[in-house]
Design a protein that fits this description.
disordered N terminus; 4 helices; Rossmann fold; 226 residues; alpha/beta; 8-stranded mixed beta sheet
């Protein structure tokens, strides 16, 4: 079977394992629960949400979450930069969840009030960074590696983007950088939303409008198989 699948055999000899699709059309919260069920080899809790924001992943969840955000307006348990994680104990968490900014200031859509909040379109993303936000990943990955327990999970939501008229591929950068940081990249799940993001200020399309993002599954260990 697939590398992350554990089979259970019923009394009549048939397989009873529950598969996880590589394409997901439900909510992020539902997918997180499925990923915990499917990939966790140790108890995922406590869970560190390193980019908590308004906590939309956890609406209705009974999970034990430690919330971290650099913006105190969301009243996280830890106010701080996830690239430093000052004061966060090492080997404390069974899972770290990461949903970094996806669009630089050049991609702002001022016609929607929540655009900057939802997509993080306030973070520096200029020529010095090749019009790309992937520079945020290495310092975060170093800290995530430190605060995760052995065999803990890192679950990262990454969206590719077009910036300065060029396609950027942050999900590829994240996987490469995670491996360089000592993680094992185990899987890639495509999450699909109902329609592509559009803006009334766009007049001509040169790239396909994205209606998907990626959830990247990494383990703080050497193997993906359970």
């Amino acid at each position: 079977m697939g590398s992350a699948v554990t089979q259970a055999i019923s009394s009549n000899g048939t397989s009873t394992y529950e598969p996880l699709s590589s394409v997901w059309e439900g909510s992020d919260g539902e997918l997180l629960e499925e990923m915990f069920r499917f990939y966790a080899t140790i108890k995922p809790e406590p869970i560190l949400d390193a980019t908590y924001n308004a906590g939309r992943f956890w609406k209705g969840s009974r999970r034990r979450i430690t919330s971290m955000d650099i913006d105190p307006q969301y009243k996280p348990m830890i106010v701080g930069d996830n690239r430093k994680m000052t004061g966060v104990p090492s080997a404390r968490y069974g899972a770290v969840v990461y949903d970094p900014p996806h669009v630089g200031p050049q991609g702002r859509d001022k016609s929607k009030k929540r655009f900057d909040v939802d997509f993080g379109a306030t973070v520096e993303c200029g020529k010095a960074h090749d019009w790309n936000l992937s520079y945020l990943y290495p310092p975060f990955l170093k800290q995530a590696k430190r605060v995760l327990k052995p065999e803990g999970l890192l679950l990262a939501k990454i969206t590719d983007m077009v910036n300065n008229h060029r396609s950027k591929w942050p999900h590829c950068d994240f996987m490469r950088m995670a491996e360089e940081a000592g993680f094992t990249v185990c899987d890639l799940i495509i999450k699909v939303r109902t329609g592509p993001m559009v803006s009334n200020k766009w007049e001509t399309a040169h790239h396909a409008r994205k209606r998907h993002c990626f959830w990247i599954v990494c383990r703080n260990g050497e193997d993906c198989e359970r």
